[in-house]
Design brief:
The chain is α+β, with helices and mostly antiparallel strands. The chain has one domain: Glutaredoxin. The protein has 12 helices and 6 strands. The chain has a 6-stranded mixed β-sheet, with helices on both faces. The N and C termini lie far apart (41 Å). One of its GO terms (molecular function) is isomerase activity.
């Protein structure tokens, strides 16, 4: 669990900040990925692709048509400001591509610190369909969350040192996350139960480490289009890549 151990030490050594060092960068808009316009693929009767979420063996959450011909996948950290920027920029325009059934959007977590891991557990605490909306809420309120955590830094650092069975509950309490998620449909009892699952915490971190190493994900956000890594991390760069692949 190298990522988690290193992040824990970093958080103990200095105040939690909205640092950009761990966030990716790039300016390539998709290279030679090209394709003709792909016709819309209707969702099953009575359903909407925007309300369809499926999970993957890699612990990803796919929003939209799971068989979409264009698959956008993002590795993101819930404490990464650049990821928050992308979520804000893309939340509206990406919707039309997902709704068409031509594009699916998969989100996988890369874990950067104990607060990140705790929130990653909490966004999984509801239904599969609540994962993406809860992640967006975290990013939309990231500065507030980090400020709240910083204001209670002694309790947060003590929580990080707690036994694994209670560690994430205590981190969430110290950072004000119990109330934050309760206001968004995850009750206190539900949150506390999810956060008591230390095996789930270890699985999330292990998946993050294993996949990051395998796919050379060195920072967030990092995007893949139909399995190909993009040197792009903004919506202004990602949208042309989707269009070159056939999304309209």
């Amino acid at each position: 669990m190298t990522l988690f151990r290193c992040a824990s030490l970093a958080l103990l050594a200095a105040p939690l900040t909205l640092a950009l060092a761990s966030c990716g960068s790039g300016d390539d808009a998709g290279g030679d990925i090209t394709g003709d316009a792909i016709a819309a693929i209707p969702a099953p009767e009575g359903q909407s692709w925007l309300e369809t979420t499926t999970t993957t063996p890699e612990d990803g959450y796919v929003l939209g048509n799971p068989d979409a011909p264009i698959k956008l996948m993002e590795y993101a950290s819930l404490t990464c400001p650049h990821c928050a920027d992308f979520a804000e920029e893309a939340s509206g325009p990406l919707t039309k591509y997902i709704e068409s059934g031509v594009v699916s959007y998969e989100l996988r977590n890369q874990i950067h610190d104990p607060l990140d891991l705790t929130m990653s557990m909490l966004v999984r605490c509801g239904s599969d369909e609540s994962f993406h909306p809860l992640a967006e809420q975290v990013w939309a309120n990231l500065e507030q969350i980090v400020t709240s955590a910083q204001s209670n830094s002694d309790a947060l650092n003590n929580a990080i040192k707690a036994d694994a069975d209670t560690r994430y509950q205590k981190i969430a309490e110290a950072a004000g996350l119990i109330d934050f998620f309760a206001a968004r449909g995850i009750s206190r009892d539900q949150a506390m139960q999810c956060l008591a699952d230390s095996d789930e915490a270890e699985t999330i971190v292990t998946d993050s480490e294993t996949q990051s190493d395998k796919l050379d994900v060195t920072g967030t956000p990092t995007f893949f289009l139909n399995g190909r890594k993009l040197d792009s991390n903004s919506w202004a760069q990602i949208e042309p890549a989707l269009q070159k692949a056939g999304a309209r």
